[in-house]
């Protein structure tokens, strides 16, 4: 016993060292999700030691964000495939129409013989799009479009031919013309009659989200299905020639992590990139290790999505995915950093970061009823598990009926801002989480500048937001009620911070935003 007692200090030191070493190793390792923000429908390629990824932002403009990484974990926005998808009423928010939950979906990113290809489709315009460039970061892009709109397609180059595979449940394939101007007549065929079959007979979402890969001479087609009473499921079909026949298997059912494809590292390690529906913050990306067994990609660790990955640690999503902005532009600077997207196609005549140095000016150009009707709302993603956005705003030149401020934008939105009412100004919080916008609180306001704050708590899908105001940026007071955020299919997007100004009586007023600051820590 004395011997054991004499060894206790040594044992304690060893245990402390091991625990410290383990904690350090865990801190230096990547964790799932790799991005705790709305980055759905990913498509990836690796060129040398650099990874590129495209994603979906639907009705937002510019669209089809392109991201870059050196380690598969830490990503930064580097470009968009297009500035404006089309000039139709829905995307322009004209004549009472909008493109919420529509626009462009499920892009496919490919690299072939020195050229990058980004394809997508739009039910809003009824077209399929293929954007090409030899410089993914700087462009220029060449745009190709044709009808019809091929739903959830994958673009694929093989043996001198270009293919599209698309559909839901029944998957079809067609050849694309070499000049990308359309499809070759007579080449359409059914590739897989019932791609959903491996996940069972009773499904609420048939197999869709096709992405095709070729590894060691075999073809692997990834799809997602959703069995009734189950979860989003990864299905993989394999064939030794592109035309089939294909054999299908369920390759992952865990946490609803599904839809994506394959990516390898320069040292030959394989991963599947997939995403998960995660409440109000949106659809968030995961990486899942892949082992090859008998010619099949086996996803996960013992069939499960790991919390930790043998990859470099996640850094902050600031400033690569979201970022603060003081709106101070030098002559050579782009007007808006890539983290910003307009809610729909913007009206370029009624916003500026040049008219007043160091400010974003939003000028009203028409009369709108609510936030979701308004043009020129400027947005950034929210990020989890917690984030807050702060603005400072000059409201000196509002007109009667104008409403301007900071929002958390989705169908069931919340907003805080300044309203001009009968020659006076008031601070107002509006909560729409019950389905219709309701003014919760109104406070008299007599200053020309105001600070506004919105917080989003997405911890374990808590999905609550609160709003605050301040006259000096230090002493914050709550306003209104807690917004119970809900991901809704009509908008099909995670909540976004939105800077807004719209007229409810007559256009022509403007507000100036001094800055937008975003943090991922509680103050």
UniProtKB/TrEMBL annotation:
CDD domains: GH43_FsAxh1-like. GO terms for biological process: carbohydrate metabolic process. The record marks 152 as: Important for catalytic activity, responsible for pKa modulation of the active site Glu and correct orientation of both the proton donor and substrate. InterPro entries: ConA-like_dom_sf, GH43_C2, Glyco_hydro_43, Glyco_hydro_beta-prop_sf, Glycosyl_Hydrlase_43. Residues 325-518 form the Beta-xylosidase C-terminal Concanavalin A-like domain. The keyword Transcription does not apply. Residues 1-25 form the signal peptide. The active site is at residues 41, 208. PANTHER family: BETA-XYLOSIDASE, HYDROLASE, PUTATIVE (AFU_ORTHOLOGUE AFUA_2G00930)-RELATED. Belongs to the glycosyl hydrolase 43 family. This is Beta-xylosidase. It comes from Echinicola vietnamensis (strain DSM 17526 / LMG 23754 / KMM 6221).
């Amino acid at each position: 016993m004395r011997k054991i007692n004499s060894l206790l200090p040594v044992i304690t030191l060893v245990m402390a060292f091991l625990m410290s070493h383990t904690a350090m190793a865990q801190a230096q390792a990547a964790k799932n999700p790799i991005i705790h923000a709305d980055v759905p429908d990913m498509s990836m390629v690796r060129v040398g030691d650099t990874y590129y990824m495209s994603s979906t932002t639907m009705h937002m403009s510019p669209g089809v964000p392109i991201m870059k990484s050196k380690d598969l974990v830490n990503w930064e926005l580097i470009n968009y495939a297009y500035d404006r998808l089309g000039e139709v009423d829905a995307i322009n928010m004209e004549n009472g129409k909008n493109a919420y939950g529509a626009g462009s979906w499920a892009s496919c990113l490919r690299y072939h013989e020195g050229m990058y290809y980004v394809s997508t489709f739009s039910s809003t315009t009824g077209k399929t799009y293929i954007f090409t460039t030899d410089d993914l970061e700087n462009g220029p892009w060449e745009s190709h479009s044709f009808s019809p709109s091929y739903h959830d397609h994958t673009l694929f180059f093989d043996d001198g031919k270009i293919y599209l595979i698309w559909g839901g449940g029944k998957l079809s394939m067609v050849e694309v013309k070499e000049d990308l101007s359309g499809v070759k007549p007579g080449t359409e065929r059914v590739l897989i009659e019932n791609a959903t079959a491996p996940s069972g007979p009773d499904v609420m979402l048939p197999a869709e989200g096709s992405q095709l890969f070729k590894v060691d001479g075999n073809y692997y087609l990834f799809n997602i299905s959703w069995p009734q009473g189950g979860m989003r499921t990864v299905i993989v079909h394999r064939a030794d020639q592109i035309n089939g026949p294909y054999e299908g298997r369920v390759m992952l059912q865990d946490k609803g992590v599904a839809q994506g494809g394959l990516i390898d590292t320069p040292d030959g390690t394989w991963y599947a990139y997939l995403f998960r529906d995660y409440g109000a913050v949106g659809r968030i990306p995961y990486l899942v290790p892949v082992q090859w067994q008998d010619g099949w990609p086996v996803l996960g660790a013992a069939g499960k999505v790991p919390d930790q990955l043998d990859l470099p640690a996640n850094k902050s999503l600031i400033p690569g995915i979201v970022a603060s902005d003081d709106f101070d532009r030098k002559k050579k600077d782009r007007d808006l950093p890539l983290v910003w997207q307009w809610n729909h196609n913007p009206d370029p005549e009624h916003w500026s970061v040049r008219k007043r140095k160091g400010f974003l000016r939003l000028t009203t150009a028409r009369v709108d009823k609510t936030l979701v009707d308004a043009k020129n709302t400027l947005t950034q993603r929210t990020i989890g598990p917690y984030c807050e956005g702060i603005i400072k705003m000059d409201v000196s030149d509002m007109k009667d009926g104008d409403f301007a401020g900071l929002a958390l934008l989705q169908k069931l939105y919340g907003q805080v801002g300044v309203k001009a009412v009968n020659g006076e100004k008031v601070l107002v919080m509006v909560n729409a989480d019950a389905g219709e916008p309701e003014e919760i609180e109104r406070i008299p306001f007599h200053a020309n500048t105001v600070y506004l704050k919105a917080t989003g708590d997405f911890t374990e899908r808590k999905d609550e937001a609160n709003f605050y105001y301040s006259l000096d940026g230090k002493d914050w007071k709550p306003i209104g009620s807690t917004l119970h955020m809900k991901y809704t299919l009509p908008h099909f997007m995670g909540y976004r911070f939105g800077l807004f100004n719209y007229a409810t009586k007559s256009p022509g007023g403007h507000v100036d935003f001094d800055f937008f600051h975003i943090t991922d820590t509680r103050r």
